[in-house]
Structures are given as C-alpha cells and as structure tokens.
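fyi for ur records
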Amino acid sequence: MSASSDETLHITPLNALHKELGGRMVPFAGYEMPVQFPSGILTEHKHTRAAAGLFDVSHMGQVRVTGADPAKSIERLVPGDVQALEVGRMRYTMFTNEAGGILDDLMINKRADDLLVIVNAACKQQDIALLQAGLPDCKVEYLADRALLALQGPEAVAVLARLNPQIAALQFGQGAEILLDGISCFVTRSGYTGEDGCEISLPADAADAFARKLLAQPEVKPIGLGARDSLRLEAGLCLYGHDIDTTTSPIEAGLTWTISKRRRAEGGFPGAGIIQKQLAEGVTRKRVGLRPEGRAPAREGTDILDISGNKIGMITSGGFGPSVDAPVAMGYVAAASAAIDTSINLLVRGKPLPARISAMPFITKRYAKA
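which gave:
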C-alpha cells in the first residue's frame, strides 16, 4: 500500500510542500513523510554537511509542562539533571523504566515559565500519557498547533541570521524566543546531524510560508528521512527503537554522560537502583562503533562475531557513510570485546566480513561551542 492511499497516516503542515518538491513519501511513525527528494539521499547528505539542509521534524511531539516546580517534578521520570538547567538551556535525557531500560529519549528546554519537552513521534502518545500520569502536580499540554523545523549545516545560522541577527548569539544547547520573518518562534541552536544548526518551533499555520522563505535562500535544500538517518549515524547518535529501547540501559548505550553526579548519587528516577549498580560494577555489553572493511555496508540485525566465530553482539544501525566514504555501523557487543580497534567479523549474507571496533563519532562534530 502506498503512503498516500493510507488514510490513517497523519500529515505535517509541510505535506503539500514536500509533494510539490517531488518528495518520495513513505509511512514513518504514523506520518506520511519524505524519505528523499529528487536529488537523492547521497546529495542531500553531502549538501547538509557543506551548506544547509531543511528538515521537517513536525511529526515529533512538542509538550509544554507547567507547575510550581516542573524541573524538580520531571526528575521523577528521567535521570537527567533538569533542576541544574539555567533558563534558556536544553538537556538530552531519557524516560527510563523500573528495569533501567529506555522508554524514549527526549530533549528538555528550560524556559522562564515552563519546560518545552520534545519527544519522538513513534512514542509521542505513550510519552504524553507517562508525563500526565507521572506529574500530577503539573499541567502537561501537547502543542498540536506547533510545527518543528530543523535547519542544519555550516551555513544554517548565517541563513537564519539574515532574518534576525540574534540567532548568531545563541550557543549550542541554548534556546530563545526570537522573531523570524515576523513570526514568534522558539529557536534552539541544536540538531541531530553532528553539524551546527537550529531547530525552530513555530505556529503550524505559519510553517509552509516560512519553509518556502528558507528554501528560497541559495544555501538551503530540502532533506528527507534517508539523509537524516545517515547523518545521525555518522555522528554516532542513537535512534530510538534501534540503538536504544526498553532492553537497553543508558549505561550500556554509552549515555552515562547524560546523568549528573547528583542524579547518580540521589537516584529517584525509574530503574535508579539498577543503573546505579551498573555505574558501580560495569555492564556486560556496550554500544560501540563499527568500521567494516571494504565497501559493503552491514545493516541492522547483522550478527557480530569475534575472530573465533563466536557471536558477541548485533548491529543496531548500519549503512554507508557518505562523508567518510565508507560503511559505518553501531551495535552492542560483549564488554570484553568493546575495546577500540578490536578485530571482529560481521556475518553478512552468511559470510563473515572483517571489521573493527571504532571510536564514535565517525565524523568530527561541528557544534557551536562558547
């Protein structure tokens, strides 16, 4: 069944624009989304690394949390240190369960009067229900009337600064309410590509005209889900439902850095006891980067073998990295085999192909730091 014939799929405010631009539409997380545009995934990927790519991420959930102390309250659900955030700062964290598994990963923006929480599209409804049930002392409001765009790449900030020079003053991980082309937007200097850039929350009814304004700039091209995936893979960033899920803990996933010293000591979030034990005693498996030899990519679900032929893990994301001009992957392996440069084999179509454990990211991240 084609995506366009499936009446159960949701659409974003840019759906008509995607089709006008020749986007190849596919079902994704309950939405009809463009996987690529006529130039193709490889060209879109390289354009984002060289100039500025415009991504429609309106399918993700934007949730406003208000209350007497929403930062303190939400720490009952996440291991991140939200109370330590200054106004105008954001934090990457995750919802955990009582087994220490990850229910979803998310971004929390601390604003003067609320928290703006950005959750993944596939987990949106369960995340909103989790927030509502877990924060009875707060008001949890799904912002259905907001769109979310991401402009990513080394030219992204310069493009937006033409509309308002305040953009250039933002550091990576900062956000502010900024007027862009007469529209009040909440803009964060952030993204999920390994590049500098911004994510722009704006009224849904203004999204189409604003996207067209950006696409009229010579540096900006539309980018689909295919390049979004290859860009985040090269940057060593997790995709929920693949590299992290309810069977993986933040420690196994290499996300220990997201848990502050205070939260590690105090706990107070679901699965804290298990995660604290893993912090103290270590884990039996770890997420690692993988560099296959040759040109053939190894995909998700591929078994990882030690050099003796014993299975030690599995690939969770894999493909060809256009920026490194080589196949790249990530997955979980037994902790004893997780050292960088360890020789391994990947079982591709029944044939063991040589590879090695690699550091991540596979590219140099170019975030704007103070």
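Residues 17 and 208 are 7 Å apart (CA to CA). thats all i got for now
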